[in-house]
C-alpha cells in the first residue's frame, strides 16, 4: 500500500496558501509545530482548519519560540534559565503548550508529537525519563480533551537506536496503561536517510516494529530540504528505474516503504502539489525495486 501524502509546514512558505493548494489536490493531514514559521504556523493554519473541518492536524511540543519562553516564565511554568534553553518537556510546560495549541488551532490536534526529545544529547536514562514525563503529561491532556493522541517526532533518535518502538511502547504503557494514547512516530526518510527502509525490507527495525505495533509512521523531509531535486537528475532516475521521473523516484521510494503511513511534504504551489500527488499515487515500488535503490544509496 502506498503511503498517503500530508503537508508539513516546517519549510513551507506562505502557509495558508500552500495549505489551500494541498487540500485542493486531496491532502487531508497537516503537520505543524508552535515554533514553525517563526512561531506563527499554528495561527496561520487556524482559518484553514476552520474552513476544512475534515482535514486533520498534528502539532508538537518541546521547542519554545521567544514569545513562548516569555509566557512560560511569566506563568511560573519554567525558570528563566530553563526557558531560555529553547526546549522543554517538563510536565507543566507540556500541558500548557498542548492547551495553548488547541486554543490557537481552534480544535484539539489529532496527534501531538513530542518534538526531538533527543535535543541536547541527554544520556539514555535521562532521555527515557524525559519521554516518560512527557507521555504522562500527554495522557492527562488526552483525558482532558486537549489532544486526541500523541506520538514522538525525532530527527536522529529512531535512526541511531537511541529510541526503539519497543522502548516507546514500554514508556507509553507505564504512562497510560494498556489503553495508552501513543499513536505514531515521525522521522526523516529520504534517499539520503534510507537506513530504516533497508531494515524494513529485511523485516526488522523501526518501520517493521511500528507496523507490528499498529503505530502510524510519518515520514518527514522526503526531499532532504529540497536538495534531492537537484541531485537526482532524469538520467540518474532512468538508470535506477527506467520510466520514472526524479520526483517519482524520490517520493515513490518513501511512499512504497513498508510501514510508512504518510509522507509530510512542504510544497507551495498547486503545480508542485499536483506533481507530488501523482508521484505518490502511482503504482507502488516492489521490494526488488526498493532494494535496488537502497543498494544504490547506501547509508
Structural class: alpha/beta
In CATH, the architecture is: Alpha-Beta Barrel
- As laid out across the biggest beta sheet, the strand order is 1-2-3-4-5-6-7-8
Specify the biggest β-sheet: 8 strands, parallel, barrel
Could you state the order of secondary-structure elements as H and E?
Answer: EHEHEHHHEHEHEHHEHHHEHH
Count of helical regions: 14
Gap from first CA to last CA: 25 Å
Helix content: 40-55%
Gyration radius (Cα, Å) is 19 Å
Q: Secondary-structure blueprint of this entry?
A:
Blueprint: E1 4-8, H1 15-24, E2 29-31, H2 41-51, E3 56-61, H3 66-74, H4 80-83, H5 91-105, E4 111-115, H6 124-143, E5 150-153, H7 165-176, E6 182-188, H8 195-201, H9 206-212, E7 216-220, H10 228-231, H11 234-240, H12 246-255, E8 262-265, H13 270-281, H14 287-296
Parallel strand pairs: 1-2, 1-8, 2-3, 3-4, 4-5, 5-6, 6-7, 7-8
Amino acid at each position: 500500500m502506498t503511503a498517503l501524502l500530508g503537508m508539513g509546514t516546517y519549510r513551507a512558505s506562505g502557509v495558508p496558501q500552500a495549505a489551500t493548494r494541498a487540500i485542493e489536490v486531496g491532502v487531508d493531514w497537516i503537520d505543524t509545530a508552535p515554533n514553525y514559521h517563526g512561531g506563527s504556523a499554528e495561527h496561520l493554519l487556524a482559518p484553514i482548519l476552520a474552513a476544512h473541518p475534515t482535514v486533520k492536524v498534528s502539532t508538537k511540543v518541546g521547542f519554545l519560540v521567544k514569545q513562548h519562553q516569555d509566557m512560560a516564565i511569566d506563568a511560573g511554568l519554567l525558570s528563566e534559565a530553563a526557558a531560555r534553553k529553547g526546549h522543554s518537556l517538563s510536565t507543566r510546560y507540556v500541558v500548557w503548550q498542548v492547551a495553548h495549541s488547541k486554543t490557537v488551532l481552534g480544535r484539539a490536534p489529532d496527534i501531538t508529537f513530542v518534538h526531538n526529545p533527543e535535543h541536547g544529547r541527554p544520556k539514555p536514562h535521562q532521555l527515557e525519563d524525559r519521554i516518560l514525563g512527557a507521555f504522562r503529561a500527554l495522557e492527562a491532556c488526552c483525558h482532558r480533551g486537549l489532544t486526541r493522541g500523541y506520538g514522538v517526532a525525532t530527527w536522529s533518535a529512531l535512526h541511531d537506536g537511541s529510541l526503539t518502538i519497543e522502548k516507546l511502547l514500554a514508556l507509553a504503557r507505564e504512562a497510560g496503561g494498556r489503553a495508552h494514547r501513543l499513536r505514531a512516530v515521525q522521522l526523516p526518510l529520504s534517499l539520503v536517510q534510507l537506513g530504516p527502509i533497508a531494515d524494513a525490507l529485511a523485516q526488522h527495525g523501526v518501520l517493521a516494529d511500528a507496523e507490528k505495533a499498529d503505530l502510524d509512521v510519518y515520514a518527514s523531509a522526503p526531499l532532504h530540504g529540497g536538495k534531492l531535486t537537484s541531485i537526482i537528475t532524469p538520467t540518474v532516475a532512468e538508470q535506477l528505474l527506467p520510466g520514472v521521473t526524479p520526483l517519482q523516484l524520490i517520493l515513490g521510494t518513501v511512499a512504497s516503504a513498508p510501514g510508512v503511513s504518510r509522507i509530510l511534504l512542504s510544497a507551495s504551489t498547486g503545480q508542485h502539489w499536483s506533481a507530488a500527488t501523482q508521484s505518490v499515487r502511482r503504482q507502488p515500488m516492489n521490494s526488488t525495486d526498493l532494494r535496488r535503490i537502497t543498494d544504490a544509496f547506501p547509508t
